[in-house]
Amino acid sequence: MQADANGAALPRFFLKAAGALVLVTGAWWFVADVVALPAAWVAKVVAQSVFSDLVRHANVGKDTLELETHMRVDMAQMRGAQPVPRGTVAELVVDARAAKYGYSLPLLLALLISGSRKKLARNAALGAVCLIPAQAFSLLMDLIKQAALGAGPGVTAQTGWGQWQLELVGYGYQLGVLLVPTLTPVLLWLWLDRQFFAAVLVEGWLRNAPVQDR
Amino acid sequence: MRRFFIVFVVLQLVFFGVELLTPVQTYVVLPITTGIAHFCAALVRWADPSVSSYGKVLMDQKSGFGVSIEPGCNGIEACIVLIAAMLAFPAKWQHRLLGLAIGIAAVQAFNVVRIISLFYLGQWNMGWFRFAHEYLWQGLIMLDVLVIFMIWARRFPQRAMGAAHAG
Fold first, then answer.
1. B72 vs A171: CB contact, 8 Å cut-off?
2. Which among A38, A148, B57, B103 would be 20 to 30 A from B162, CA to CA?
3. Is residue B72 part of a domain?
4. Domains held by chain B: number
5. B18 assigned to some structural domain
6. What's the pLDDT score for residue A115?
7. Could you tell me how many CB contacts below 8 A there are between chain A and chain B?
8. Containing structural domain, residue B25
9. Chain B nearest C-alpha distance from A165 (Å)
10. What is the ipTM for the molecules in this complex?
11. What is the pTM of this model?
12. CB distance B30 to B95 below 8 Å
């Protein structure tokens, strides 16, 4: 797609990108669990190395990442749990679908398809690789938040973390859920297809600039 | 371009952190979200009188189906992205303010379409609702923000052209 002179480039880009997003997201849905595995593996490694005081073991399953934690839950205090003898404790295990935040990939692909399409395969591959840390971050923050903040004050106290660390977990979780999966592919696209982006802007500037400036 | 990215990311992180503060949630985010739910209900009642809103919940009285507008669904995060982008981009303040007013309105208008479409999708099929809610609309809203930003950045050239010439 070229930045054209009649100002139709952006509406056309939006419609193409929206259409592509619907189609690519639909296709991604069928392979989401497989393409999300690299992010799950990265999250697993980070969980076991950075959060070793919290995480005893991490497992990447067919479509989930599961963290077995050092923390113990008093089952008698768990709402909705089956009646158990007093003093029964369980190990806290949290899990999440690996592809939960993988929808950043179809968004990036839709933008690349709708942009200049220059070096499309190379940019798609490079972009997919660059998205892995972002997807891993979202997945990991989801699980850490579940473990540290989602199982009640008794479990939160077992982390030994201060208030600011817990606030940081909350912030990281919100960031990972609400912003990172959608913002990262847009920023990556702006970088990978920056010539298209610049061409669209400059064409608009030249068209809107006062005559004496041209 | 590098300066834009750095300023944008820093502003984004700061604004997002401010949005999460309890007083901001209580006195700004929740009232806005409630207002969005009321607005959606008022809009839908033109065609479907059985729809009403309670707080941030949009509900169909006949079927009992309701959707609660939670963080990420109220369009505020999308607006924060737009605000950070417009503030980071070289432009005159009057252009920024005009862009923010129109841009935020456009993001929220698109978000109203999202909420109402999900409301009816959920009553039809929960599988499709989950797919559209958790994956598809997330991308569409950010695409909307991107295009609004690009339209605005194309529209007001003076300072941006100067910055581009300066390298």
1. no
2. B103
3. yes
4. 1
5. yes
6. 87
7. 98
8. 2-162
9. 14
10. 0.87
11. 0.88
12. no
Domain assignment present for residue B167? The answer is: no
Helix, strand, coil fractions of chain A, as percent rounded to 5? 65, 10, 20
User: Minimal Cα–Cα distance from A68 to chain B, Å?
Assistant: 26
Per-residue b/e over A154-164, b at no fewer than 16 CB within 10 Å?
A: ebbebbebeee
DSSP state for residue A72 in the 8-state scheme:
E
| Interface test mutation site (partner B, options A28, A167, A179, A196, max chain B beta carbons within 10 A) | A179
| pLDDT tens by residue, chain B, 167 residues | 788 889 999 999 999 999 999 999 999 999 999 999 999 999 999 988 899 998 999 999 888 899 999 888 899 999 999 999 999 998 889 999 999 999 999 999 999 999 999 999 999 999 999 999 999 999 999 999 999 999 998 887 555 555 554 44
Domain boundaries, chain A: 9-207
Q: How near does any CA of chain A get to the CA of B39, in Å?
A: 23
Distance CA B113, CA B118 (A): 8
| Distance separating alpha carbons of residues B74 and B37, to the nearest angstrom | 9
CB distance from B140 to chain A under 8 Å?
yes
Measured CA angle at A179 (ends A64, A32), to 5 deg: 30
Note whether residue B141 is domain-resident. Answer: yes
Residue of chain A whose Cα is closest to the Cα of B80: A179
Burial class (CB in 10 A: 0-12, 13-18, 19+), B22: exposed
User: Which chain A residues have a beta carbon less than 8 Å from that of B156?
Assistant: 208
